[in-house]
């Protein structure tokens, strides 16, 4: 795939085919992804790839916690509020997404199933969890973001789809137990990987982007 197409053709996939991804293909994706830049080539990322019985164990544990209404305990806290102009973008995106799925405001059952899908890891056959040593600073968090984007672009280049998901790290105690992640590593984010179920309603929505002039500020050019 041409590199310039990756940016427009990669988008978040929220439902996957029940089709395994080979370890050989995942190694190819990760080999490309670890070329991501980092401060002084520190390469601070710790990467845990869950598939097979491990991701199924996580799915079961997450669904139980979700259905029991357990509080989220992410290692990296989620925002409690957003600036108004960003909050309006979020609300617009949520509204467009639900409309594309045919879910109306008062359809509590459909909304519940949609939310539950997050805690099933979207049915993906692979979950990649990205971690950092607890002693590292925000600069390493920036580096991890660079790696995450490289991972998703590499996946697309190799014929796979992906979804970064804050919900996937809502219950880090399950991830630590199932994947044997040490306490000195923060579990930052999970990225689901697999083959898209392109016909599923959850995958019909592709989010828009704000006009470039709204976020790009040229100076001296």
For the structure shown, list the relevant keywords.
globular; Nitroreductase-like; 43% helix; oxidoreductase; oxidoreductase activity; NADH Oxidase; 221 residues; 4-stranded antiparallel β-sheet; single chain; 4 strands; Nitroreductase
Offer a quick outline of the entry.
Residues 9-195 form the Nitroreductase domain. This protein has eight helices and four strands.
Tell me, rounded to a whole number, the average pLDDT: 95
Radius of gyration: 18 Å
CATH arch. level architecture: 3-Layer(aba) Sandwich
What about the largest sheet?
A: 4 strands, antiparallel
Proportion of beta-strand residues: 5-15%
Q: At the fourth CATH level, what is the homologous superfamily?
A: NADH Oxidase
**Amount of helix:** 40-55%
Strand order of the largest sheet: 1-2-4-3
Low-confidence stretches: none
Pattern of helices and strands = HHEHHHEHEHEH
CA distance, first residue to last residue? 32 Å
Number of strands: 4
CATH topology type: NADH Oxidase
Domain Nitroreductase: 9-195
Protein name: Nitroreductase
Keywords: Oxidoreductase
Family: Belongs to the nitroreductase family.
């Amino acid at each position: 795939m041409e590199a310039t197409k990756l940016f427009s053709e990669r988008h978040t996939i929220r439902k996957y085919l029940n089709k395994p991804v080979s370890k050989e293909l995942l190694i190819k994706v990760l080999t490309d992804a670890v070329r991501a830049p980092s401060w002084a080539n520190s390469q601070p990322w710790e990467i845990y790839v869950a598939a097979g019985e491990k991701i199924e164990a996580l799915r079961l544990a997450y669904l139980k916690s979700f259905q029991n209404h357990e509080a989220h305990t992410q290692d990296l806290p989620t925002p409690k509020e957003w600036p108004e102009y960003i909050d309006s973008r979020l609300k617009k995106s949520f509204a467009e997404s639900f409309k594309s799925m045919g879910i109306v405001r008062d359809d509590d059952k459909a909304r519940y199933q949609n939310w539950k899908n997050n805690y099933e890891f979207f049915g993906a056959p692979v979950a990649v969890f990205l971690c950092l040593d607890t002693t590292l600073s925000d600069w390493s968090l920036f580096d991890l973001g660079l790696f995450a984007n490289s991972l998703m672009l590499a996946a697309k280049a190799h014929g796979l789809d992906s979804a970064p998901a804050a919900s996937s790290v809502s219950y880090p105690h399950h991830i630590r137990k199932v994947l044997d992640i040490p306490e000195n590593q923060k579990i930052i984010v999970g990225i689901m990987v697999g083959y898209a179920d392109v016909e599923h309603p959850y995958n019909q929505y592709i989010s828009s982007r704000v006009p470039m002039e709204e976020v790009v500020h040229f100076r001296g050019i």
